[in-house]
Write a structure and sequence with these properties.
Elements lengths: L8 E3 L5 E4 L6 H10 L5 E4 L7 H17 L6 H15 L5 H10 L6 H14 L2 H23 L1
Antiparallel strand pairs: 1-2, 2-3
Helix pairs in contact: 2-3, 2-4, 2-5, 2-6, 3-4, 3-6
Amino acid sequence: MKANPREDLGYGKRERFRLKLEDICYAWAILEEEEKGNLGKELWVNKVGKVSKEERYLALYTRWLISHLLSGIVSPKKYRYYTALILVKNLKLMSCKKLSLILDRNDSRLTKTQAHNIIQTAHKILNKDLLKQIELEALKLADQVIKRKEN
């Protein structure tokens, strides 16, 4: 058994891990499994394959953009949830498992001092249409969150 880096992850045999679906960080799992009536059960997933540079910067840029737009409006815990909504539900751009892995392993890169490098690299790697699409989805989401806060 490997050391457990997070309370909500349980590692099993053959490098598989278990996700508790109530954890808001795994919004994709909640959205998908709720429809199947599995909420409250555990979901087993296989080990994630190689993460591409494009996927990494897609997730990092989206997370930075959301945190920038909603800074002070929502708790830092919710940024991951909103990132999942945009990348997995709205744009369907990558696997849910990969998104979780990218955000876990690159969390330290999302600090204010490193944000500039993330933005620059994302603009070099990702195409302009995709960046526009992410920005539009993030703005829509921010508007919804702000309206909900005001009501």
